[in-house]
Amino acid sequence: MITALAGAQLGDEGKGKIIDIMAAQADVVVRATGGNNAGHTVVSDGKTYKLHLVPSGILYKGTVCCIGPGCVVDPLSLIREMDEVCANGTSLDGLRIDYRAHIVMPYHLVIDELSELAKGAGDIGTTKKGIGPCYMDKAERVGIRFYDLIHPDIFAEKLRGMLENKKKYIVGMFGQKAYDDRASLLDYDTVYAAYTAAAEKLVKYAADTTVIVYEANKAGKNVLFEGAQGTLLDLDMGTYPYVTSSHPVTGGFCVSGGIGPTLIDRCIGIAKCYTTRVGKGPFPTELFDETGAYIREAGAEYGVTTGRARRCGWLDLVILRYAVRVNGLTGIALNKLDTLTGLKEIKACVGYDDGTKTVRDFPADIRELEKCRPVYKTFPGWTEDITKATKLSDLPAAAVDYLAFIQKEIGCKIILVGVGPDRTQSFPVDGVEA
Ligand code: GDP
Ligand code: IMO
Ligand code: MG
Q1: Which of 30, 152, 212, 389 is 20 to 30 A from 420 (CA-CA)?
Q2: Rounded to the nearest whole angstrom, what is the distance from the C-alpha of residue 54 to the centroid of ligand 3?
Q3: Are 110 and 169 in contact (CB under 8 A)?
Q4: 227 CB less than 6 Å from ligand 1?
Q5: pLDDT tens, 130-183?
Q6: C-alpha 169 to ligand 3 mean position (Å)
């Protein structure tokens, strides 16, 4: 069986936890898009693992964990992450890196930083990991791929040409001083030495991961495509231009993971019971008051990758309905119900008022979205500690009613409820009835 997991909101929905739980049944786990802009948290046996590019299935011995064709790999950062994973006593034997994955180079980091600076107040709020500039080179067909990196002759030639081109680009776009201040990061010998040393460490993980996935599926094994980012950060489906440069929707697994759409058996969306966003961009249900601050602290809403405080707001069912539609979701996992405990009232946005009508479908353009004001339904809160709940009947009636309403509004079955960060603090459900 092939299962696709996708973030149903704006990233940080608790994908790491769900991937780790579902990976218990998987033979192969695949990351197919994005890079170390992702930050996935897995909490197990009191230990917290923060993963960026290493797939969240890595904690299971014997599971093959693929960094797929559509990923972008910063090899220096990946090695640091691998060292941390190893220091925790976890084996990396199952790791595989696809030959086709593009390499994040120092000039991508420099360009990401300088582009954001140049945009001033109009910046995107990227993670500054060089993700966008790396995907730009890929689309321009000048990128350096993992295959190139592990072949020193190919790498040397490509690197020399790219450093010359990027120097011209940086000087032209941002000025001579901007280049001079960062020239030491872009020195040929330094970059060549650091990257070939990284390549020597990574070459043993090189593989064609599309073959691994295909053969595993043919042999009746379980494959789990783990999501990164979220639906509204998708380059096409998201709140453009406030998006990432890859395709976190389930369709992205086909294009960027190398499997045909007919092979995916189920598509599971992951959401939390409220909304967060890190970085700039529209956010209709954002809360600027003490309730937003309460959610931020109760939910520990600080970025795993950048440490930035996440913007917090009520659950937006227009977004979830959209995620159900564009990802073809067959089920949804709802995390962080426990974070809402203690709030007197809980709100969920059921539609937007654009000044003339009620909008139920997420607008295609952010200028339309900016006209929208959320229309809320209000629910009574609960005060009981739910962090030890293991079934629906352990939850207060108010919490069950809230879940049942969500399910009905989005037209997608809830299949899992999260009540805490630990691996054990989630339980499966077969839909929720009030
Ligand atoms: P990801 O990027 O989707 O993997 O999510 P992050 O790891 O960036 O952020 C999710 C945060 O919520 C992490 O700190 C998780 O440990 C935590 N988390 C996940 N599920 C739950 C839950 O059900 N309840 C609570 N309180 N925290 C959770
Ligand atoms: P996980 O997998 C939340 C956001 C950035 C920024 C925008 C573009 O942990 O859910 P980029 O560096 O990708 O060019 O930044 O996308 N972003 C994320 N937000 N979670 C993520 O990943 C994100 N990855 C990128 O904050 O707004
Ligand atoms: Mg995250």
Answers
A1: 30
A2: 13
A3: no
A4: no
A5: 999 999 999 999 999 999 999 999 999 999 999 999 999 999 999 999 999 999
A6: 32
